[in-house]
Design a protein that fits this description.
The complex is a heterodimer of chains A (about 240) and B (about 300).
Chain A (H helix, E strand, L loop, with lengths): L2 E6 L2 E7 L5 E4 L6 E2 L10 E6 L2 E6 L6 E3 L2 E3 L1 E3 L5 E4 L2 E6 L23 E2 L2 H14 L12 E8 L6 E3 L4 E5 L6 E2 L10 E6 L2 E6 L5 E2 L2 E2 L4 E2 L5 E4 L2 E8 L1
Chain B lengths: L15 E11 L9 E6 L4 E8 L4 H22 L15 H23 L7 E10 L2 E7 L3 E6 L2 E4 L6 H7 L5 H5 L6 E2 L12 E6 L5 E5 L1 H4 L4 H10 L3 H14 L6 E11 L2 H12 L11
Antiparallel strand pairs in B: 1-11, 2-3, 3-4, 4-5, 5-9, 6-7, 6-10, 10-11
Helix pairs in contact in B: 1-2, 6-7
Classes of the chains: A mainly beta (about 240), B alpha+beta (about 300).
């Protein structure tokens, strides 16, 4: 049975049989072979049987389709060939070249790369740079360092300004709190701010904080300029550059 | 506790925390061997989780070696604080944090050396996440995609950053958190112990509060169970050992595609001295006036 094997760093990511319908390769999830990398176009390439020969066709992808190091628009494939898209390569297994009757082999759950693997520093840098260059949501800016800061607008605290450097920032009267509240009747731990991958989230402690005037229903992602009110103090969340 | 809000602030050390912990690890529903490893050292209040990688049985070798090295180095450092430290010391770090960082540097060296000396072990490595509690300060040393969570006042908060390609893409704003969750690239790590001669280690210090619950876990749990499910399991099961076992069941019910490890640490208040006397007195007299501040 002819098949394509998607490989990443010599590890098998996914296999698909080549049936009578073209195998669609690309980044968007409706492809038969989804290649999860920003260097790959949404509709990148197709592999199909044409008069008994196995053919790869580039779909006008931005970064090209390569067969054994050669950039191609359209090429005949042989058993053992490698198709390169981005950092991934697809091994061609054309044994038993005859097209199989169409099977609904599509939409089998995409298995993840089974083995955990570690990228070496070079590949890692390349992949992240590439991803950055391709980033369609390009708020990405590597050269500007963002410094998330809490500025105290009103209320008694041990400092007027705090740079959020830790994964967890606690607000309260406790000696263990990061933002220390002054005053005997202040709560030990009024609220907390957690740094997650996609931003900073404020959550309740013994008090429920309000963000921009509305009490939060649960951990709430902070945006630049948000006003946090808790235990009688007012804080401003600012992202400085 | 709210009734005691009129009392002066307690200093760390004046009121210790009683620590109860439990842990469990399971091969999962798909794999045939368990490459995860964990260790609880009650005398040190040290908790370690590691997820090994590398073909055949070498992931197990890597995670066991990494955990053993970390525990041993921390024990030695506690008996002899003057024992040599690896790596540069950073200002502002507690002595325990420096010792823990040193332990992770050493574990990296040991695993890397072992892989270099035994050709069949080539490419092996391990994640390592360690939590060490000193009075009210928690030190976390971390490399890889195992995690530490803190459940406090019902809010589950992640205290570590995954060193994975997808997490890095989220941090750079290239992927959203939900895109990362459905990515097929989740197994690609940027950092692990033992794969390079040098490694960068994350060190985090967190102030603890009574009733905090910590969870250390491997990615076999976090990929199979959502955070609300994890928070729910921790809240509904006050016994740490039972909570850890419940989390394993949760991951297996979700598919169990990878090995699963969970270590749960509950910090209970342990009042001492006049403070506890006052509280006990308050409890006794609660039927009369119910006010702990009435003295």
């Amino acid at each position: 049975m002819a098949k394509l094997s998607l490989m990443f760093e010599n590890k098998l990511v996914k296999e698909v049989p080549i049936g009578s319908r073209p195998v669609r390769i690309g980044r968007s999830p409706d492809n038969d072979l989804v290649v999860d990398n920003l260097a790959v176009s949404n509709d990148h390439a197709r592999v199909y049987f044409d008069s008994g020969r196995l053919v790869v066709e580039d779909r006008g992808s931005l970064n090209g389709t390569f067969v054994n190091d050669l950039r191609v628009e359209r090429a005949t494939l042989h058993d053992g060939d490698s198709i390169w898209v981005g950092k991934h390569h697809i091994k061609v297994d054309a044994i038993g070249d005859a097209p199989l009757p169409y099977q609904s082999a599509r939409k089998t759950a995409a298995p993840m790369i089974n083995e955990t693997m570690v990228l070496d520093t070079k590949v890692r840098r390349e992949m992240l740079q590439q991803a950055a260059a391709m980033g369609e949501r390009t708020q990405f800016a590597a050269d500007r360092i963002k410094v998330p800061t809490i500025v105290v607008l009103s209320g008694k605290t041990d400092h007027k300004e705090y740079i959020l450097t830790n994964k967890l920032t606690t607000i309260g009267r406790s000696a263990m709190a990061t933002i220390k509240l002054r005053g005997w009747f202040k709560p030990e731990m009024a609220a907390q701010i957690n740094q997650r991958d996609d931003g900073y989230y404020v959550g309740s402690g013994s008090k429920i904080p309000a963000v921009n005037g509305a009490p939060i229903p649960g951990p709430t992602k902070l945006r630049d300029g948000d006003l946090i009110e808790v235990a009688g103090i007012r804080l401003n969340f600012i992202v400085r550059e | 506790m709210q009734g005691a809000s009129g009392l002066p602030a307690r200093l760390p050390g004046e009121c210790g925390l009683q620590i109860v912990s439990g842990g469990a690890t399971d091969v999962g529903m798909v794999r045939t061997n368990n490459e995860d490893c964990f260790r609880i050292v009650p005398s040190l209040r040290l908790f370690v989780v590691s997820d090994g990688m590398g073909g055949e049985a070498h992931g197990e070798v890597a995670s066991a070696l990494a955990v053993e090295t970390v525990v041993k180095h921390c024990l030695e450092g506690t008996e002899n604080p003057a024992a040599p430290l690896l790596g540069e010391s950073k200002p502002g770090l507690a002595p325990r944090s420096c010792r823990l960082m040193s332990a992770l540097y050493l574990a990296n060296q040991r695993v890397f050396q072992s892989a270099a000396e035994h050709t069949e072990q080539r490419g092996m490595g391990a994640t390592l996440t360690a939590a060490w509690i000193d009075e009210l300060t928690l030190s976390i040393g971390h490399v890889g995609d195992s995690r530490v969570y803190l459940l406090r006042t019902g809010v589950l908060q992640q205290l570590t950053s995954d060193h994975s390609l997808v997490a890095e893409q989220v941090r750079r704003g290239i992927l959203t958190a939900s895109e990362a969750e459905s990515s097929t690239m989740q197994n690609v790590l940027l950092r692990a112990l033992g794969t390079q001669p040098e490694v960068e280690i994350d060190m985090e210090q967190v102030g603890l509060f009574p009733n905090d619950v910590l969870l250390l876990c491997s990615d076999g749990l976090t990929r199979m169970a959502t955070e609300p499910e994890i928070a729910g399991a921790l809240q509904s099961e006050p016994d740490p050992q039972k909570a850890a076992e419940k989390l394993i069941r949760l991951a297996n019910e979700g598919g169990g595609v990878d090995n699963i490890t969970a270590v749960v640490v509950a910090l209970k208040p342990e009042p001492k001295g006049w403070f506890s006397w006052l509280r006990r007195g308050a409890h006794k007299s609660a039927g009369e006036n119910g006010s702990p501040g009435g003295h």
